[in-house]
Amino acid sequence: MKKLLQSLFILLFVASTAMAQDRTITGTVTSSDDKLPMPGVSVRVTGTQIGTVTDANGKYSVKVPSGSKTLEFSFIGYLVKTQSLAATNTLNVTLESDSKTLSDVVVIGYGQQSKALSTQTTATVKSESFKNMPIQTPQQALQGQAAGVNMVNSSGVLGSEAQITIRGGSSIAAGGRPLYVVDGVPLNSAGGEYTQTQGGSSGLNPLINISPNDIESMTVLKDASAVAIYGSRGANGVILITTKKGAAGKTRISADYQNGFSSPTSLDEMMTADQFRQFRTDYLKANNTAVPAYPTTSFNWIDAIVRTGKSNTVNVNATGGDEKTQFYLGGTYSNESGYTIGNNLKRLSGRLNLNHKLSDKFTVGLNYNLSHVDMDRIGTENNTYAPITAGYLQLPYVTPYGPDGQFQNTGFVANVIAIAETGINKNYSDRSTGNAFLEWKILPGLKFKTDWGIDNYGIDEKYRETDLLTPGGYAYRTHYTDNKWVSSNTLNYDKSFGKHTIGALAGYSFETATLTKMMVEGSGFVSDDLPNVGSASTPITASEEVFDWALQSLFGRFNYDFDKKYLFEASLRRDGSSRFGQNKKYGTFYALSGGWLISNEAFFNKDNNIAQNVKLTASYGTAGNDNIGFYQYYGTFSAGSNYLGEAGLTPNVVPNPNLSWEETAQLDIGLSARLFKAIDVQFNFYDKKTTGLLLNVPFPYTTGYASASQNVGKMRNRGYEVSINSDNIVGRDFSWRTSFNIGFNKNTVLELPANPDEDGRNFVSGSTPQRAITGYSKNSFYLIRYNGINPQTGNAEWLKKDGSVTTSPLASDRVIVGKGDPDFSGGITNTFTYKNFDLSAFFNFSYGNDVYLDGLQFADNFGSPSYNKSVKLLNYWKQPGDDAFAPALNSPTRTTFQQVSTKQLLDGSYMRLKTLSVGYTFPKEFLQKSKLFSSVRLYFQGQNIWTIKDKDFRGDPEISANGASNQVLGQSFFALPQAKTFTFGVNIGL
Questions:
Q1: Which of 60, 67, 881, 972 has the most CB atoms around it within 10 Å of its CB?
Q2: Which residues have CB under 8 Å from 575's CB, separation 6+?
Q3: Which residues on adjacent β-strands are paired with residue 501?
Q4: 75 Cβ partners below 8 Å, 6+ apart?
Q5: What is the 3-state secondary structure (H, E, C) of 217-256?
Q6: What share of the chain is helix, strand, coil (3-state, %, to 5)?
Q7: For residues 474 and 497, what is the distance between their CA atoms, to the nearest angstrom?
Q8: Which range, 56-60, 275-279, 674-678, 862-866, is most confident?
Q9: Cα–Cα distance between 397 and 384 in angstroms, integer?
Q10: Which residues pair with 218 in a beta bridge?
């Protein structure tokens, strides 16, 4: 018996020892989406650093120590799965896709990437951020939503172009617009070429024909690794617009209706007729001048010009399909009247996006948009034909109507009420954009895509003045077409093997466009009832200009990641452009970038609750700017000259076979992480240096040329960006989320052609008060410093260059006093939901920029009897000790008080409640009873509701009337302030 017990004990001991030994677990990991094996899945023994990854067939094998109870399976885009170990040594697992992580796919040039594995620096604004917002154009949705993107609305004129810079402006005299790409088609965007600037010096908005309701997302490409794939057009940044696509399943119909009204955010107060008459009487008497008999009439021009703006917008779309065919069909109609007379905009657009799977190998698709825009335009801001400008400057005793009750001519400051009622100032545009593609899956992981796109843009302007304003009448008609077609062919290869994943892109593209500009102009009409320029008795102009250009490109990109830890990307593009000289036709642009997913390292504690998804990235590369117009390198001549009664030619452009694109090299270092499983943080530092700036270099007059374009300057933009997205509270009935971004940038001009100022610094003038100066911002204000009113003498005083006080400053006393670009800008959005209610508040801000209000030279003009004046002039000096706004009526400085100085330069920093939205979504249980609606949401929105600004700022600080100009930023001549808008709407889903 004793021996038997010993034998049983030894047997049990051996068995238990065997059970306590390591064992090998094998199995296959598949995806719940397509049931296919998943390579590269991380398999880890829970609580240890022991693990492996699945092979190309989704299989794995891992040794499990004794006592281990679970395995953890993880893969980018899928939910982490913890699986208990059983007695068997085989464990097959199916991973479920993580919809939140999968949605974090970023659109990049010629493709998409997982955000977690991307080394590019981008910012994405999704449709949820601007859903149902009463915005005219897509650019408005970018304001304050993307770090490093500074967007300033040029004015409140409907259809005017905004000023957008990405990480600071990269050019001075060449085009500064970002490249807009819609569904892979680079758009024509020469807004200044499409108009006679009747709606503002900024020209037409290049995206006015695109409905924001059709947009799924906008991705801003910022660093070199993101923009280098666009080569000679990427230096100003690239904005990729992706429109909505169909999805398999039940057809869903969505309809949205908005109705709103608007008013100006701010208006200056001008003198009434009684105030003006009394002021002028006191002024003339103080200077021993006879007082004329002023008319006793009175009229408030601003009240007559400003109205309540109205807007109505209808959006309808349908989406659906099956496994083979998916579609999106959308339509938009909007009718908006601005808050000033004569400014109206109607838009009708339709979009069809279609995808069809011909077979397992071939897929075809179509993205097409057709639009028509009908605008009533108004005169440019710096023009007495502009409603607001005329309203401010028109003498308050002048009336629009004569004694007979009919409109009368009011002289130099035009009768803008008569213009709006009797004249014609129309702009019609028709635009068709889109692309068709074929995709061929040649082999697993290898696919070929051919894409053919168009952007056909036609613009008609019709302008007519009656005999009241111009004796005999005046008219012009313009017709512009800008027609582009583009072809791109790409080959993509993606392959995973073990811990390695590679991706490669090779492509060729060719695009060409023709811009045609025609104009006819005439005067002398027998009757105002004849609206067409063909009825003019005196032809003035009949002109036609045709411009062609083409771009041929080869490009490629290579991606590699090892074990989802170490990332590498390289891109290369070679462009050949017809815009440049024979010696510089072709240019090569490149980028290199790398990333380290620190949180995927073995030493990183993945179970910590502080930091997750920690990634470090760095990139360096180049991009160019080819936006210099047409034929600048040719030695061209201008026709139409008269030489001794014979037709002649005049030298126009100096030949320059070495004319080339501007090149911007950029370094970017980024760090991103998710903190406390609730806060996504991204930080980026960048340093951009632009060389070969395209500038007009002055020539001696003896050459017969005034100047010529050359690559002669250098400039730097350096800064950093922070983006934070936080899930503050996420509960069953209540949630609170915050999104914050801020971008800091410092612009410095490093080198300019020889043109020294008084201090020996080279400069390039942008406007009278603004210039680019070496060592300073390209938008530096160079002015005499205003010192205020001397309370003892009543004289206006300024500062000399050395800082001493003077009452008679000279041009040589000008110094650098500010800049038009901000130190930083950004935005913050807080979104709250409680059961079926939602509330969102979005603030945008800008700090450190100055704004020059050119119109104050007129509004604050003491001496001129021809214009109305600001009520601030009523606060003039009367006795010693007065703290007055204006000098004494008889001060020797009364005639120079309004001269160009820092008196017109104001602090443009502001914070604005840009959008406030409140909505209620009807419960699904309630809607199910109707058996008709799948969703119903009622909402109210306010825009530009409340603004914090400097107490001395006069008007709206969000202004830059020159739109996309690089050289003139933050200037205004009575530009229309932004509209304060209130909108009510309903969104219905069927």
A1: 972
A2: 231, 232, 551, 552, 553, 586, 587, 589, 624, 626
A3: 496, 561
A4: 29, 38, 40, 41, 42, 95
A5: EEEEECCHHHHHHHHHHCCCCEEEEEECCCCCEEEEEEEE
A6: 10, 50, 40
A7: 74
A8: 275-279
A9: 17
A10: 125, 241
Fill in the amino acid letter for 653.
Answer: V
Residue carrying the six token digits 């629009």: 400
Number of other residues whose CB lies within 10 A of the CB of residue 68: 18
Say if residues 668 and 686 touch (Cβ distance below 8 Å): yes
Provide the residue type at 596 as one letter: W
Q: Which two tokens stand for residue 141?
A: 């949705």
Say what the alpha-carbon torsion angle 896, 902, 903, 907 is, to the nearest 10 degrees: 170
Residue-level pLDDT at 639: 72
Between vectors from CA 308 to CA 304 and to CA 311, what angle results, nearest 5°? 140
The rounded mean pLDDT for the chain is 90
Question: Tokens representing 857?
Answer: 């030279």
Cβ-in-10-Å burial (0-12, 13-18, 19+) of 593 comes to buried
- What's 552-607 look like in SS3? EEEEEEEEEEECCCEEEEEEEEEEEECCCCHHHCEEEEEEEEEEEEHHHCCCCCCC
Give percent of the chain with pLDDT exceeding 90. 68
868: Cα separation from own chain's centroid: 37
Residue with tokens 């340093």: 687
**By three-state DSSP, how is residue 286 classified?**
helix
Q: Which residues pair with 484 in a beta bridge?
A: 455, 513
Bridge pairing between strands 538-562 and 566-577: antiparallel
CB atoms inside a 10 Å sphere around CB 636: 15
Tell me the per-residue pLDDT of 304-319, one tens digit each, with 9 for 90 and over. 999 999 999 999 999 9
DSSP state of 535: G
Token pair in block for residue 160 = 């005017």
144 and 162 in contact (C-beta within 8 Å)? Answer: no
How far is the C-alpha of 142 from the C-alpha of 354, rounded, in Å? Answer: 27
Residue 1's pLDDT band, with cuts at 50, 70 and 90, is very low
What is the token pair recorded at 709?
A: 């374009």
DSSP label at 133? -
Residue 118 burial (C-beta neighbours within 10 Å; 0-12, 13-18, 19+): buried
Q: What is the pLDDT of residue 707?
A: 79
Kindly report each contact of residues 437-444 with a partner whose C-beta sits within 8 Å and lies 24 or more positions away, as own/partner: 437/184, 437/364, 437/365, 437/366, 438/362, 438/363, 438/364, 439/362, 439/363, 439/364, 439/365, 440/361, 440/362, 441/360, 441/361, 441/362, 441/363, 442/361
Query: What is the tens place of the pLDDT at every residue in 432-474?
Result: 999 999 999 999 999 999 999 999 999 999 999 999 989 999 9
> Model confidence over 780-822: pLDDT tens digits?
999 999 999 999 999 999 999 999 999 999 999 999 999 999 9
Structure tokens at 419: 């213009």
How many CA atoms does the CB half-sphere of 57 hold within 13 Å? 6
Contact 186, 160 (CB under 8 A): no
**Phi, psi dihedral angles at 303 (to 5 degrees):** -60, -35
Q: For residue range 330-388, what is the model confidence (pLDDT) as tens digits?
A: 999 999 999 999 999 999 999 999 999 999 999 999 999 999 999 999 887 778 899 99
N-term to C-term CA, the chain: 84
Range 756-775 average pLDDT: 93
When mean pLDDT is compared across 330-334, 397-401, 637-641, 667-671, the lowest value belongs to: 637-641
| Residues with Cβ within 8 Å of residue 687, at least 6 apart in sequence | 666, 667, 716, 717, 718
Higher confidence at residue 475 or residue 72?
475
Report how far residue 431's alpha carbon sits from residue 206's, in angstroms, rounded to the nearest whole number. 11
Give the DSSP letter string of 668-687.
EEEEEEEETTTEEEEEEEEE
**Residue 328 phi/psi, 5° resolution?**
-135, 130
Token pair for 341: 């007379």
